Amino acid sequence: MGNIGVWGTVAYILVIVGIFYFMGVRPQQKERKKQQEMLNSLAVGDTVLTTSGFYGVVIDLTDDTVIVEFGGNKNCRIPMQKSAIVQIEKAK
């Protein structure tokens, strides 16, 4: 009788861990993958929205940074990490 109680407890714990995985970890991994795919499609000339709420145009790219030009002022070019980009509008 005691042996069934131990296995029941183990099964209960595994069910709880499974629920946490499918409700927490897995959606987070999907979102991270979606964000990475978006950043991989980034190209010069695209309009981007940054995490701070600024819109700008990408003028140069490296592996992990971008240079974004803000407004019509050609002197306002700021290098930033790609991870600071939350939305991309492709250049037409």
UniProtKB/TrEMBL annotation:
Q: Which family does it belong to?
A: Belongs to the YajC family.
Q: Where are the transmembrane segments?
A: 6-25
Where located? Cell membrane
Q: What is its main location?
A: membrane
Record InterPro entries: Preprotein_translocase_YajC (IPR003849)
Q: Note the Pfam families from the entry.
A: YajC
Query: Which GO annotations describe the biological process of this protein?
Result: protein transport
Name it: Preprotein translocase subunit
The cellular component terms of Gene Ontology attached to this UniProt record, alphabetical and capped at eight, are: plasma membrane
Give UniProt keywords alphabetically.
Answer: Cell membrane, Membrane, Protein transport, Translocation, Transmembrane, Transmembrane helix, Transport
The organism's taxonomy opens as: Bacteria, Bacillati, Bacillota, Clostridia, Lachnospirales
